[in-house]
């Protein structure tokens, strides 16, 4: 309720539940005291909400999936985002003298826009630590930025049958093994098979990779991509990385519309609990989005549900409203001035 209605504190939650007493009665519930909410925040382990998230995710994954590309392989984007905290209120999360934070790592499925892989960690932890733990399905394609570039790790997805698309670091040392023909009117200026041959790459057993250079005609910027996929055309490789931006839009959506900036507890368990509940809320809204009219965003659905949170109305009635029918009659709720 607090996530969907944007409540600011435990006292705010308590007051709003009290204001809905007659509706809570019909739901088989009752108002909850602030002290009870605080005690649950401290003692109820956040792992409970994590398990609820993955249980619900298993149900949501049954929805239709379509990422818009011609290939049928599942497409994921991998990234992490910092959730800033006050170092005075949350000293346990301090990562610098004047900064505290936790890190939210996500593997987003582009077919249904669901965060199929989620992990929470310390704010100063390297992105790769959680990125390595995500086991993407075989034959899938994963896009990530240069923060996940690790020559030793490149061999793991290759051996698991997983393709990846990322950016090549500017100072990377490599040897060109083969040059492939390109279609320049698609923006691709180079397509090569390379071997990273710096001492660092050789020591970590970097596999043979593909280097694709793409020139954006609108901005004039030159992008150099790195992938272990040798079958897709070079223009598709560039388009896959461009679609990686979907995970950034996901982080923007949850930070703007869900409560993961202002927290109702101070302990680590309370913070993790609230973030996991926010992710559960996102799954519920994403599931409801398939009932809504085409073009409805997460933000729009959240705002509509917020106004109908305690109303006895079905999702279809809320998200697919009939056209308004106006009758010539005296409005019953108009103030007589």
Give a written overview of the molecule.
With 337 residues, the chain is an alpha+beta fold. The protein has a domain of 98 residues. It is 35% helix and 21% strand. It is built from 13 helices and ten strands. The chain starts with a helix and ends in an 18-residue tail after the last helix.
Helix and strand arrangement:
Layout: H1 2-5, H2 10-19, H3 21-26, H4 34-43, H5 47-60, E1 75-85, E2 94-96, E3 99-109, E4 114-122, H6 127-131, E5 141-144, H7 155-159, E6 163-167, E7 174-179, E8 188-196, H8 199-203, E9 208-215, E10 222-227, H9 234-243, H10 245-257, H11 268-289, H12 298-307, H13 315-319
Parallel strand pairs: 1-5, 5-6
Antiparallel strand pairs: 1-3, 2-3, 3-4, 6-10, 7-8, 8-9, 9-10
Helix pairs in contact: 5-11
Pairing-aware structural class of the strands and helices?
alpha+beta
Let me know the largest β-sheet: 10 strands, mixed
What would the principal axes of the Cα set say about the shape? globular
Helix content: 25-40%
What does the average pLDDT come to?
Answer: 89
* DSSP strand tally: 10
Weakly predicted, low-confidence segments: none
Q: What are the secondary-structure elements, in order, as H or E?
A: HHHHHEEEEHEHEEEHEEHHHHH
The proportion of strand residues reads 15-25%
- Rounded to the nearest angstrom, the radius of gyration is 24 Å
Roughly how many Å apart are the termini? 37 Å
SS summary, helix count: 13
